[in-house]
Structures
1.
Amino acid sequence: MLEINKFDRIIVANWKLNGSIDFIEQYLQELNCSKLESSNNCGIICAPSVYFHKLVGRLNPLFLGGQDCSNYSEGAYTGEVSATMLKDASCQFCIIGHSERRQIFGQSNEDVCIKAMNLIANNINPIICIGETFEEKNQNLTKDIIYTQISKSVPKNATKDFVIIAYEPIWAIGTGKIPSLEEIDNIHSFIKNEIQNIENYKILYGGSVNSNNASEIMDLKNVDGVLVGGASLDALEYKKIMNS
Ligand code: PGA
């Protein structure tokens, strides 16, 4: 598994249910990976798994990531993709517990914990997503929600050397709204310093990140990178965020 401590910033592109073979060819041309400066930044492209083979060997110095993995290892589970299969297809990172998987597909913290264990067993670095709804924020429940999500979804054998946490307020995803910089830093500091066994984990911020706001967000003391959805579908925009 990749040691993530050596990276200053981690910049994840989450393509979600987007892309095609033509899209990938154009994206790679615009990204021009061979010309990307090899810096201490870790860029990860989380693509739909059916397209991994189109990206393998063409992303260096960036890494390939998945967007979810099955709770199961193998067997009669139609439509699932296991951590072993992701590994087999050269995937090095995998997002799990994204709010869209939690809200639309009913995944629980316990599911996320099993997925994280499966990924770790297959030497894939998990990127575990957490975050509160707008109602929870308004009821001042953000820290309680995050605390519960982390305590239940980060497995006991996780360590800060290879597991990443992504704080994504659900109300900020795809909406153009983001918390104030102070709020982001405050929540990240809470996660890094006040939750037992999570001390000094790498914590990414996600939710409406683009090339205009990435730099000020990543400059915050407790932010180790960003998870980018919509803006990452534009290769030039993603490149700008990486150079922020
Ligand atoms: P967004 O998505 O950047 O489009 O808000 C982020 C995410 O869902 O990971």
2.
Amino acid sequence: MEIIIQPTQQAATEVAARTIARLLCGKPNAVLGLATGSTPLLLYQTLIAMKLDWSHVTTFNLDEYIGLPRDHAQSYHSFMWNNLFKHVNIGKENVHIPDGNAQDIPGFCREYEEQISAAGGIDLQVLGIGTDGHIGFNEPSSSLASRTRIKTLTRQTCMDNARFFGSEESVPRHVITMGIGTIMEARQNLLLAFGQNKACAIAQAVEGPITSINPASILQMHPVVKVILDELAAGNLTRSDYYRWVYKSKPDWQSV
Ligand code: GLP
């Protein structure tokens, strides 16, 4: 794992944006895995401002609420179109977001996995982290080998996301999410976290044991992961001096 600690969310986001821009310049038909939530918002704004060519890019989103109309303001469809896709030259046919209104959800999930494989797999997956350590919507105790499927949110996640829905009761309980096994097949993972409320989950994910109780901890087993943090999210790490030292000592050819 490469742990990159930056002074601010903005500086951390720029590292992530440069990593993605470099990928798209070298591989214009790259397959990106994308995330929602407040964490990647600035990243999407930064990518839009970079005016990259998205015409050959394919995307797969991590997750979606079940039963929420696609055009609901808080659906992840709305989120992605409003915050990224409508501002870049991506083809509608190249965008994939789980369909939380599919008639046959298990069948849809199988098809989603097949579509990822048919696209050649995900080159780079953007991830946020829940305060309980979830990635995508893989809540604590999710199988570390799981594939795209239905999940039930924890009470904690419903409380965390109540800010988007006005009340905890209005947060849908069920979701479709890529599995942890699916995420682990991406060729590269970029985990972003900002703010003090992520510091515990990050410390457990990066320095704790690998356990389904902190699903993000499985990323310790992935060969190409950048964990990009602001100072607050890095606040509970015990080896942050070393991570800063590594980043500062990078040779030019490795730097982002
Ligand atoms: C959400 C999403 C995750 C996201 C996480 C953190 O519920 N399903 O993909 O990473 O929880 O959200 P935020 O970035 O708003 O803190």
